[in-house]
Amino acid sequence: MRELTKKERFNDKVLSRFNLYNSIFSTLPYESISKTGVMLPLFERICIDGYKKSNNPTQIVNDFFDTYMMDLMIRRRFPCYFVSYNISKDR
Q1: Residues 57, 91: Cα–Cα separation, whole Å
Q2: In terms of Cα–Cα distance, which of 68, 10, 81, 75 is closest to 42?
Q3: What's residue 27's pLDDT?
Q4: Is residue 1 part of a domain?
């Protein structure tokens, strides 16, 4: 079996995953999400701090909701748990 070139390894390891994630995020209903521009930097800070503390993705998402979106009902949080669960399985 021949060895893959750098470009082929890049396409296999990086580009294919980028295309997968890009297709997932490009189909999200952004128009129904309010305050995205305000909340993303806050979520980023929670993610960075949580990662430094070795929190799992579900804990990080919970910290974000508990800190900035306390009034959001649990059932409205479900889609975020789905995303964090899939990410934590890859760790």
Answers
A1: 10
A2: 68
A3: 77
A4: no
User: What confidence category does residue 91 fall into, taking pLDDT thresholds of 50, 70 and 90?
Assistant: very low
Q: Which residue has the tokens 């975020």?
A: 80
Inter-residue contact 38 to 9 (CB < 8 Å): no
Say which DSSP state 75 is in: H
Which residue type does 77 have? Answer: R
56 vs 26: CA distance, rounded Å:
25
pLDDT of residue 48: 94
What is the predicted pLDDT for the residue at 32? 67
Number of domains the chain is built from: 1
Q: Are 58 and 87 in contact (CB under 8 A)?
A: no
